[in-house]
Design a protein that fits this description.
The chain is α+β, with helices and mostly antiparallel strands. It is built from four helices and 18 strands. The strands form six sheets. Strands 9, 11, 15, 16 and 18 form a five-stranded antiparallel beta sheet that branches. Strands 10, 12, 13, 14 and 17 form a five-stranded antiparallel beta sheet that branches. Strands 1-2 form a two-stranded antiparallel ribbon. About 5% of the residues have low confidence.
Length: about 260
């Protein structure tokens, strides 16, 4: 009987050592530096390796999954956190930022064509008569003047201070000038011109349009002015061309004005 009791004690000690070995082997297997278990919880104090990947996610980050409401996608592989999320700042798609104001014009519950139709209706409703007219900024010829007939006596038309052409701009859009071109009918002639605008024709203190006089000496391709002091002409303004210097008066000069319309 005494020997049997010793055998039991020996067996118990062996079992204790085996449990300790298994416990230590488990800790080595999963890579924990400390493992504390109870019947209800498991505390992991350091990173561990799952398969070949080291898991460094914190408990706080894992708790973010509590907000997930389900999955979506063809393979149900995407988590859903909200079916109607609210963005507190703008979002960027590719390289294109979309602000809150821009997103307000889009109805994401409808098709792309429906959205285009809706925007078209919005534009039509804001234009008197519901007529949509594309406002192009392509430069085109606005005015063309031919001064003189090429006769010898026509040189008198090009004296210093003479207004040799004019027009009144009207309508509902501004005119933006982009270029003024001048060409003489024969070689060897030299005049300087500028353009002016004012509500009153030939006002004593008009606004100068070109940034400096345009010197016209060419008789083939012409001379161009593309820099302006005041390029925008509002409706109701007179525009006129004045000779500021006549070094050698021509018998004919052609002047073209280019621009586009804007609101």
């Amino acid at each position: 009987m005494h020997g049997l009791g010793l055998d039991k004690i020996y067996l118990i000690n062996v079992m204790k050592k085996l449990i300790i070995i298994l416990f230590l082997g488990l800790m080595s297997l999963v890579g924990y530096s400390q493992l504390s278990t109870t019947l209800y919880n498991l505390i992991i104090t350091n990173a561990f390796t799952l398969g070949a990947t080291e898991v460094t996610t914190t408990g706080t980050q894992l708790n973010y999954l509590n907000a997930a409401t389900g999955t979506t996608g063809t393979t149900s592989s995407n988590l859903v956190f909200s079916t109607s999320p609210t963005f507190t700042t703008g979002i960027t798609i590719g390289a294109n930022p979309i602000s809150e104001a821009m997103a307000g014009y889009l109805d994401f519950t409808s098709s792309g064509q429906d959205q285009i139709d809706g925007l078209t209706t919005l534009v039509e409703d804001t234009i008197e008569g519901g007529l949509v007219v594309p406002l192009l900024v392509d430069t085109s010829l606005v005015a063309a003047f031919t001064v003189g007939m090429g006769n010898a006596g026509d040189t008198v038309l090009f004296s210093t201070g003479d207004v040799i052409a004019a027009f009144k701009w009207d309508g509902s859009h501004n005119l933006v000038m982009t270029k003024v071109t001048g060409v003489n009918s024969v070689t060897g002639k030299d005049i300087d011109i500028n353009l002016y605008h004012d509500v009153n024709f030939r006002d004593g203190t008009p606004t100068e349009i070109l940034d400096g006089d345009l010197t016209i000496t060419d008789y083939e391709t012409g001379a161009n002015a593309t820099t302006f002091t005041s390029a925008t002409i509002a409706p109701g303004q007179w525009v006129w061309v004045r000779v500021n210097e006549a070094t050698t008066q021509p018998t004919q000069c052609i002047i073209n004005i280019y621009g586009y319309l804007t609101n």
